[in-house]
């Protein structure tokens, strides 16, 4: 690769990283709202809206893992952790700052929307950390085993495994610390995992298309990765 291609590859990596961080931070900000979804008529999904941008993070780490390698994917995960905690600190400061009388949003409304439970945030971050690192590890395990072939296999195996761990960890912690009642455990676990599996299955064609564009643009062989600055 020449200098221009390396510069372009670095720019794309930064864009993917920013999309990953934005999706992660957004999911942590909106997770307190729940909704139901009944697309098939026989099963009612009961989900937090925070789950909507979350699958995007796993798609992006799979893209980065495939194109830029395991090290770059892990770096994005670590950056996401710092971004999430930093955003939570900003929100806590804003929450403790008193509103003036004619403020469009008063203290009560702001606290109700953004007064995030420390336990809920901690549960979300721990689940995220475990799931993402496991996702990347499994992805590269199957990449080595298949010599860079069968992208669908490592994409789905890594995502299904990590999503189960993510869903189980966060719901267990939230119920253990009293944020959610245990009566909702099985419903939220099943709904959350099945939803993530469904979305992961749907994102496989997207992953193939993006990888195809990268390989065409940068003349990459199957399994070959782009080396950019560490």
Mean pLDDT, nearest integer?
A: 83
Based on CA atoms alone, the radius of gyration comes out at 19 Å
- Major sheet description: 2 strands, antiparallel
Number of distinct beta strands: 2
N→C terminal distance: 16 Å
Within the largest sheet, what's the order of strands?
1-2
In what range is the share of β-strand residues? under 5%
The low-pLDDT segments are none
SSE topology string: HEEHHHHHH
Number of helices: 7
Helix content: over 70%
Topology record:
Blueprint: H1 3-30, E1 34-37, E2 45-48, H2 54-68, H3 70-96, H4 107-114, H5 118-145, H6 151-176, H7 185-218
Antiparallel strand pairs: 1-2
Features:
single chain, 230 residues, mainly alpha, two-stranded antiparallel sheet, 7 helices, globular
């Amino acid at each position: 690769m020449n200098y221009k291609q390396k510069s372009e590859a670095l720019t794309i990596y930064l864009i993917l990283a920013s999309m990953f961080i934005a999706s992660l931070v957004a999911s942590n900000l909106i997770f307190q709202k729940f909704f139901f979804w009944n697309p098939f008529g026989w099963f009612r999904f009961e989900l937090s809206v925070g789950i909507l941008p979350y699958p995007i993070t796993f798609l992006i780490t799979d893209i980065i893992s495939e194109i830029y390698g395991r090290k770059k994917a892990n770096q994005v995960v670590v950056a996401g952790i710092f971004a999430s905690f930093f955003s939570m600190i900003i929100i806590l400061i804003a929450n403790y700052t008193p509103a003036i009388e004619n403020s469009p949003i008063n203290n009560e409304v702001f606290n109700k929307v953004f007064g995030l439970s420390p336990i809920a945030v901690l549960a979300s971050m721990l689940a995220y950390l475990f799931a993402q690192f496991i996702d990347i590890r499994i992805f590269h395990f199957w990449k080595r085993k298949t010599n860079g072939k069968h992208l669908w296999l490592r994409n789905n195996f890594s995502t299904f495994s990590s999503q189960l761990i993510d869903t189980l960890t966060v719901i267990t912690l939230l119920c253990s610390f009293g944020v959610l009642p245990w009566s909702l455990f099985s419903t939220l676990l099943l709904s959350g995992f099945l939803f993530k599996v469904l979305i992961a299955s749907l994102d496989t064609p997207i992953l193939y298309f993006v990888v195809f564009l990268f390989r065409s643009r940068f003349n990459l062989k199957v399994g070959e990765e782009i080396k950019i600055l560490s």
